[in-house]
Amino acid sequence: MTIYVLMSGAVAGSFLVMLAGVGWAAPELPRVFIDTTLPSVTGTTFIVNCPASPCAVADLQNKINTAALADPNLNHQIVVQAGATFNGALIIPTRADGTGWIIIRSSAEASLPAPGTRVAPANAINMPRIQAPGDTPGNPTPDIQINSGAQINSGARQWRFIGLEVQVSDGVPKQSLVNVGTGAETSVSQLPANIVFDRMYLHSFSTALSAALKWGIVMNGTSVAVIDSYIDDMKAAPAQITPADDGESKALLAWNSPGPFKVVNNFLQAAAVNVMFGGSDPNNDTLQPADLEFRRNYVRKDETRWRFTIVMVKNNFELKNMSRSLVEGNRFEFSWGATQPQEVTQLGYLVLLNVRNQDGGNSNATVSDVTFRLNKVVNGAGGIQFLVHDDPNASQNMQRVLVENNLFDRICSMASSPFPSCPTAWSNGTNGRLWAFGSYSQTAPPPNAAQDMVFDHNTAFPDQSPTDAQDSSNQVFLPPPPPNEFRNNLMNGGLYGVRSDFFAEGTDTLTFCFNSVPFNRNAVIGRASTVYPANNFFPATVDEVQFVNYAGGNYRLEPTSPLKNRGTDGLDVGANIDLLDTATAGTISGVW
């Protein structure tokens, strides 16, 4: 049985920690959780006023430079006039080693939502604005550059930003708003350290497609946190930023840092990949990304702005290289595949866990120790795509992944779906998969397969297939031991059920693609029991499941449901909806 304990405290937050698994190597949680408790001011206060906007950014930069030279063991603050606009870019300098912080904060911070509550665009009136122009050819310049250093302990350190609006000052395309580090660092000691973005509002010049903005915050530092913030309208088309640019917009990304990272209670909206860790190779093994806390975020795409347009669209959350991540209590929403010739998209998966040795120089790339639980993954052409080993570049195998107590709703690919939970088609019928698996490296040394992957107590409504082995010539899971398992999941069987390209539905696919993975006490709606292992349930329709209100989206089970208390652990088959609703209660509003 899985046991949850609600924890609290400044460092731990309020997440649920799994204490006991069932005979398998459970994922390791992040080894470090960043403490974002707001420090009190013990040193100097620097005031930056601006009689009339636009203001000289040099005045703010001079105060930043002066504060960086102040006693490094005291907590200083720079109070910036709310409502003022500073035209130009800022550079956050390196500091002497010490325990003190420098806080750059709005003078109207008291009028902003309290810590723990997300800001919104309406709060911009109480924020100073930092805005730099779009990039000139060959010279990408972020609005805020947080410097790294060339010597031991020489990077920018202990900087906290509270209640700032950051945007582009014109409609010229721009690569990024905030860069933590440069991506060129070759040692941990060179990286910026202890950087917190608190109640920030980052966005483009306008929602017009011509006003391209590729990246929000590049997080290549150690102990980088983004909390209670609103990052919106990252979008670009291929070749729009530069002639060779791929157009992959992102709200948050990192590839050259060992972490830890904290991303809690944010609105994160980008057209291509809202959040990505990996995507480029780190400069050496000491800079492999690790230790991610990702909770309580609303991660979405705006279909009204970007669907049927030329902007690049991919997925909402992607791990290409990450060890030890807790992904909990989030809402991932809206992702689609191309249905018109001008669209540049992938297949519309909402989440990708894809091991990638991106540039061919990082054979130690891994996606391992992933705890993905209590999330709502809704309104997309596909649920999660797993690439458990890279191709053609060698990588490590995916290992220790728990997907538990999540809701995957309206995973819809077809224009006229027969399933009531699919009112909108998110692709042209080419997806509709809940969990799709690949293990592609035919020439890499075996075994090229995952281990310790458990899917437990999920409720899901895909319109084509709950489980799909995309590359059926390879085994996706290693044979036991160690164990892998699908158990206690309540899934719409869709058109094809548990399938693969080369083998028959059900037992054959589980045998030949997943090394006879245990498949226990799952309910597969609308599929025939004769082609599946015993000890599972096959309600012919959703009516036979006896949901409290299927049409209304209440997927709790009625007391008379044949799936009530029928899980391997004596609990209901499917997700614990009460626990799930509590964990995601504030994802849309940002109020907890």
Description of the structure:
The structure is a single chain. The protein has 592 residues and is mainly beta. Helix content is 6%, strand content 34%. It has five helices and 46 strands. The two termini are 29 Å apart. Mean pLDDT is 92; it is low at 1-22.
Concise summary:
The chain is mainly beta. The chain has a 14-stranded parallel beta sheet, with helices on one face.
Q: Categorize the overall geometry.
A: globular
Strand segment count: 46
Q: What is the share of helical residues?
A: under 10%
**What is the overall pLDDT average?**
92
Question: How many H/I helical runs?
Answer: 5
Radius of gyration, CA atoms, in whole angstroms:
24 Å
Q: Which percent range describes the beta-strand content?
A: 25-35%
Uncertain runs: 1-22
Structural class based on helices, strands and sheet pairing? mainly beta
The biggest sheet, with number of strands, parallel, antiparallel or mixed sense and barrel status, is:
14 strands, parallel
Distance between the termini: 29 Å
What is the total number of structural domains?
2
Instruction: Provide the spatial order of strands within the biggest beta sheet.
Output: 3-5-8-11-14-17-20-23-27-31-34-37-40-43
Please supply descriptive tags for the structure shown above.
592 residues, mainly beta, Pectate Lyase C-like, 14-stranded parallel β-sheet, disordered N terminus
Topology summary:
Elements: E1 4-6, E2 16-18, E3 45-48, E4 55-56, H1 57-68, E5 76-80, E6 85-87, E7 90-92, E8 102-106, E9 129-132, E10 144-146, E11 157-162, E12 165-168, E13 174-180, E14 193-198, E15 201-202, E16 213-219, E17 222-227, E18 230-234, E19 250-254, E20 261-264, E21 267-270, E22 273-277, E23 290-295, E24 298-300, H2 303-306, E25 312-313, E26 315-319, E27 322-328, E28 331-335, E29 344-345, E30 349-354, E31 367-373, E32 376-380, E33 382-387, E34 399-404, E35 407-411, E36 433-438, E37 451-456, E38 459-462, E39 465-469, E40 485-487, E41 490-492, E42 499-500, H3 507-512, E43 519-520, E44 523-525, H4 542-545, E45 547-549, E46 554-557, H5 577-583
Parallel strand pairs: 3-5, 4-6, 5-8, 6-9, 7-10, 8-11, 9-12, 10-13, 11-14, 12-15, 13-16, 14-17, 15-18, 16-19, 17-20, 18-21, 19-22, 20-23, 21-24, 22-26, 23-27, 24-28, 25-29, 26-30, 27-31, 28-32, 30-33, 31-34, 32-35, 33-36, 34-37, 35-38, 36-39, 37-40, 38-41, 39-42, 40-43, 41-44
Antiparallel strand pairs: 1-2, 45-46
